Amino acid sequence: MKVYGITNCNTVKKALDWLKQNHIEFEFHDFKKLGISPEKLQEWNEKAGYEKFLNKQGLTWKQLDADTKATVQSAAEALPLLQQKNSMIKRPVIEDNGFLYFGFNEEAYRQHFGK
Q1: Per-residue pLDDT tens over the stretch 23-78
Q2: How many domains does the chain have?
Q3: Which structural domain range is residue 30 located in?
């Protein structure tokens, strides 16, 4: 299983703590250190749609100028922006044998991991 996120994000910290407490092994991919490939973003887009993982509630999105925000109308505009400003990706991203989840929701985790 792979968890994508940023180490100083409180939501990521909650998710990682939950996984550790429930003895679920994972590999952590830090966006800040390792970035994110266009191929991975395209894969997520094909599975879920970029709207699911473009975090418009976060500070990075809010700090964008209005013109840039207005240009994000499709995956063609969103994915390059998400690669460049990966802190706009909703975190954490959980990939586990076909399970793809954006964010932390204890109930969704419980259901998926049988805890």
Answers
A1: 999 999 999 999 999 999 999 999 999 999 999 999 999 999 999 999 999 999 99
A2: 1
A3: 2-113
- 4 as an active site residue: the answer is no
Query: 3, 4, 9, 78: which one is catalytic?
Result: 9
Q: How many CB atoms lie within 10 A of CB 105?
A: 12
Token digits of residue 111: 């259901």
Of the pLDDT bands very low, low, confident and very high (cuts 50, 70, 90), residue 114 is confident
Identify the CATH number of the domain in which residue 75 sits. 3.40.30.10
Query: If you search the block for the tokens 């490939």, which residue do you land on?
Result: 37
What whole-number distance in Å separates Cα of residue 50 and Cα of residue 36?
14
Enter the pTM of the model.
Answer: 0.92
SS (H, E, C) 4-65: EECCCCHHHHHHHHHHHHCCCCCEEEEHHHHCCCHHHHHHHHHHHCHHHCECCCCHHHHCCC
